[in-house]
Amino acid sequence: MIPVWVKGLVHDYVTRDEEGNKAEVKRALDHVDLNVEEGQFIAVLGANGSGKSTLAKHINALLLPTDGQVLTCDMDTADDRYLWEIRKSAGMVFQNPDNQIVASVVEEDVGFGPENLGVPTEEIVSRVRDCLAAVGMSKYGENSPNHLSGGQKQRVAIAGILAMEPKCILMDEPTAMLDPIGRREVLETVHRLNREKGITVILITHYMEEVIDADRIFVMSAGKVAMQGTPREIFTRSEELRELRLEVPQAAELAHELAKRGIPMPPAVLSAEEFAEAYKSAVSGKTTAKLTESPKSGASLEESRQDCPENNTGLSENGSKEPLLSLRDVRYVYGTGTAYETVAVDGVTLDLFPGEYVGLIGHTGSGKSTLIQMMNGLERATSGTVSYQGEDIFRDGYDRRALRSSVGLVFQYPDHQLFESTVLADVSFGPKNQGLSEEEIRERAEWALRLVGVSEDRWQSSPLELSGGQKRRVAIAGVLAMKPKILILDEPTAGLDPAGRDEILGEIDRIRRETGMTVVLVSHRMEDVARFADRLMVMDDGHLVYAEPPREVFKHREKLTSIGLEVPQVTRIMQMLAADGIPCRSDAITVAEALEELCAAEAAVD
Amino acid sequence: MLRDITIGQYYPTKSCIHRLDPRTKIVGTMLYIVSLFLFRSFSGFLVVGTAFAGILILSHVPFRYMLRGLKPILMILAFTVLCNFFLTDGEILWKWKFLKITKEGLQRGAFMGIRLVLLIFGTSLMTYTTTPNQLTDGLEKLLSPLKVIHFSAHEMAMMMSIALRFIPILTEEADRIRKAQMARGADMESGGVIRRAKAMVPVLIPLIVSAFRRAFDLAMAMEARCYHGGKGRTKMKPLRYGLRDLFGYLYLACYLATVILLRVWQKI
User: E strands within A151-277?
Assistant: First the structure.
């Protein structure tokens, strides 16, 4: 039995105008050929818009081919006699945890699939019990899904698919809306099911770290399969991947760069541990080839210096200035007096200085969302003071609405704030609320849109028609148009592909340098904040655990791991090597820095 | 946190009333309401009240929760009672300028008032002892014979239960949207009715767009799990009558008999 067999698959999305004529034809899949063997763990990688999601939906016949053929478990998807059998054999887990749970009780939702298949009641009950156990959610059978974390909800969704006894599980970006802990839970569960029950798994994602254990990877771009192979084969081709708007994990990239400089590293390195071993043997093997400084690497040295010039000077530079925003012993308690009383923020004290770049890191539930909402007065502190430019923002009569023009907060999902009929009108909402003149409003909106890089030809489009990355830019412009002194961004890279992520982060830093704004970036991706932040503030369980430059914070690796966070892969590598006696600094926080350190160490060992 | 708010006012406790099949309770409540409107005198209310009191005691729901159920309709209650006091003709007991209170008015007002109170008590008790999902299941089973006139009770029940599931999710989302717009200086508090209604637009539009997107996603997920309507579908937790439902129906039968007898013979 061949789980998935795709030949010459073409899919066109046709948009029709009011008369029903074809207005626009967009080719999402362009003659795709793909085979999957039973029991394999397959990953389909691709940037946003590459067609990977469309491909997944063909496999369980949610979409039908414009041309070509798809056979799922030896059944033709175009033959509607097999429709329900196909969907039973190839179950699908979707991206949004909430939007695929139908029932209000966990075990009833897991039973939804078998109910549809007409399975007798007693068997449904036993299947549900077994499937919840298989995903590790047995204790939550009688709970409401609303009380579960993202990772738990996705595991319930997986259980719901398992209950239909599929041969193959399709997962369409199942971790895109989860934090690292949730992501790990879901992937561990799915790998275990693949190993122990032999269920074929097809994972669609753009997170490179998730695919290193796959049997085979297909990389999609513009509707075609651009690359295919084992993880090792794919990860050597880092330049190609970068062109496809993807990236390799830092370990692989570092190995690749070292190899270019003449140090004999194996062609593909998949993890930090592998890297450490490979480097140590490469160095002790005493290579005879001299280090060659290729012009390319020289250029990247320059770039890296420009990228992180202020990492160590941030604090001392600002130490002489007055803090712009101060929090003193701030606490936030909700549900006081009820059974659900929870302390979200527990005695946080911090200062924000003009022009600095602060990263705020913490897992879901650490209190960071509540904390930033207190910074612009959206939520009121239960106790403690929040002062902006020396004034207590919670005192009687303080205009908190005006404060929000100075302390701008961009929420995580742009769809939560885009509402106007045109992009320009939406970005004008902020300045309009400030009571500025028509002309000033227009000026501000145009300035903000230019600053984030949204071209003029999009200004009259509906904001809802834009791509994910563009929507995010418009959302940020909407807050920038108020010309705030502090810009707080809540997980601005969520859902973006690697290239999109780099673009947004680069732009935010550029905006900060051009305008002198203080930027607070909330994230759970250490690599994001390591590159640009002057200081990192780490939250855990409502407490501020660290408020130091990234290099200092990453030295506390054990503590970070214990609270559910990780240091960048590259830092981990350096720490491991330094611990094993290699003469290198252990605090590199970007690939470029590590590269220099390791080249120098290699030369020193010679 | 908002997700902990339960819809309706289910009072979670173990009692034989809670454990009754929802169909029994729905039928019982309807019978109760009908009987309330059949009686024409205060003594009739005594019968209804006693029957109700028995069920209330068995349900372990504290009486103060019954009173809580009256809060939303306090205004209507007062309005009804007072209207009847002042606007009924008859033997005048008190008069001041054009306002008068008659003996008939007092009787009528009290009658209407007590009927309304008993009505609220009965329906509240049902929602206190039955979860919204149990209610949709019960309605689905009771109305399933209507498939002969092409009314799909299953689809109605599915719609209702999905709506119930998403209410807390959309409520939380509305709150987040509101905050996102407030972060851009939106003013939700000040101004007159028109102004504040206009201020809702930046919250309503993203919310509606989101609701549509969720509906689309959910439909796809349901199809992916082989949902194709009610035909051929089995149930994981089918409603099954138990011994206590037999007792429940017997109780209702006796009650019905009593009501009819009293009404026909004693003309109360």
Answer: 168-172, 200-205, 216-221, 224-229
- Spatial distance between the Cα atoms of A559 and A343, rounded to a whole number of angstroms: 22
Residue range(s) of every CATH 3.40.50.300 domain in chain A: 4-237, 314-548
Query: What's the CATH number of domain A4-237, 3.30.70.2640, 3.40.50.300, 3.40.1180.10, 3.30.1330.30?
Result: 3.40.50.300
- Residue among A451, A447, A438, A494 at smallest CA distance from A469: A494
Length of chain B: 268
With a CB cutoff of 8 Å and minimum separation 6, the contacts of A62 are A92, B220, B223, B224
- The number of residues making up chain A comes to 606
Residue B8 Cα, gap to closest chain A Cα (Å): 15
- 10 Å CB burial of residue A555 (0-12, 13-18, 19+) is middle
pLDDT in tens, B223-248: 999 999 888 899 998 999 999 999 99
3-state helix, strand, coil in chain B (%, to 5): 70, 5, 25
- Taking one residue from A and the other from B, the number of pairs with CB-CB distance under 8 angstroms is 156
pLDDT tens for each residue of A169-224: 999 999 988 888 888 899 999 999 999 999 999 999 988 888 989 999 999 999 99
Query: What is the CATH class of A314-548?
Result: alpha beta
Query: Which chain A residue shows the shortest CA-CA distance from B190?
Result: A401
DSSP A8: E
Q: Determine whether the interchain pair A411/B224 forms a contact, defined as Cβ–Cβ distance below 8 Å.
A: no
Helices (H), B88-192: 103-129, 132-143, 153-182
Q: What is the DSSP string of A79-140?
A: -TTSHHHHHHHEEEE-S-SGGG--SSSHHHHHTHHHHHTT--HHHHHHHHHHHHHHTT-GGG
| Residue B116 CB contacts under 8 Å (≥ 6 apart), including other chains | B73, B76, B77, B80
